[in-house]
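Archive entry. Fields below.
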Amino acid sequence: MLKLNVALLSLALLAAAAPGPPRVVRCSNGKTTANAVCCKFFDVLDDIQENLFDGAECGEEVHESLRLTFHDAIGFSPKLSRQGKFGGGGADGSLMAHSDVETLFNANNGIDDIVEVQRPFAIKHGISFGDFIQFAGAVGVSNCAGAPRLEFLAGRSNNSRPSPDLLVPEPFDSVDKIIARMGDAGFSPNEIVDLLASHTIAAADHVDESIPGTPFDSTPSAFDSNFFVETLLVGTLTPGNPIDPAGGQALSPIAGEIRIQSDASLARDARTACEWQSFITDHARMQSKFRAAMSKMAILGQDRSRLIDCSDIIPVPMTPLAKSATLPAGKTMNDIQAACKATPFPTLSADPGPATTVPPVPPS
Ligand code: HEM
Ligand SMILES: *[C@@H]1O[C@H](CO)[C@@H](O)[C@H](O)[C@H]1NC(C)=O
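PREDICTED_STRUCTURE:
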């Protein structure tokens, strides 16, 4: 009977996944995946959903875990390598293995929290730090409403050297500087925007330390386009301390929401504004472009052909978005600073009710 089921399942997969040789392996826990190497990730999945993400939430740990995927991976500079220097190993887990060095970098302010929370999970399950960071990011994103199912490839070495400093972009960097740095790592201006869809499930603890957990958009647990709409509203206020001691803060349009200078500038720069605007009314495009850019980012410094595709371990995101793009309550189309010359800004209606204010993301 079991044999028959396996045969039927293989047949079904063969039909669904043609061409290409379909593979299916039954793990000791009875679950199936594409490769025996992936089996151990089922246990990691159950453990982190329960004990890292507080029962598959899209909360602070998910946001921090996603930020960590970037800060580990972007430590990768072919430009430094061409100068005969060590350019960093990319998505190699160096931020966790050499946290004594890398968490001291200015751009990594606050990243030590999630590094220390994740480390015991990685060690307990015997997963390399590089694999663990990207796995936790992909699983975490799947908990957010409207998220795409990200790719996950396993097999990164656990050996790394500390990344050089100054490779992680800062919120006070100019668009020229960000495009140059991200270009060095292999990303086009549009792909920077694609990656910044991450800021729709994000908050800041250290841009203004007096108001930790202040979100970048009004819906930090939904992978929706509100971030791309709200960054284009006229800025009118600072949500906390108006002095901006850390640097890199821009005026925000909504009480309780924070805007960083780099997001404000990228939203309005001719090189990035059209990609930015395109996501407002095309959620499927936002999902697929984010997924593609994340696939590229997650294997910086790695050789794709030497990694094993364990994407089928990543949960299929189940929660759909509640609604399509709107303006926050209290705003009108006159508050939009449209910046894409090629395409008119879409006409959006505003949410009903008193002006939107955004509560902080609760710490957990
Ligand atoms: C132009 C490049 C980028 C800049 C300048 C930037 C800057 C920032 C800053 C200043 C924060 C707030 C950190 C804090 O104060 O706690 C932040 C948060 C965050 N960033 Fe970025 N970021 C960039 C790109 C990215 C990318 C490519 C990703 C992921 C793919 C990402 C994911 C996140 C997430 C998820 C958070 C929220 C963390 C939390 O809520 O704890 N960022 N980013
Ligand atoms: C990875 O290296 C760290 C030390 O940096 C070690 O604690 C951990 O057990 C190693 N993990 C694996 C899977 O080898």
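CURATOR_NOTE: Residues 6-18 have pLDDT under 50 and may be disordered.
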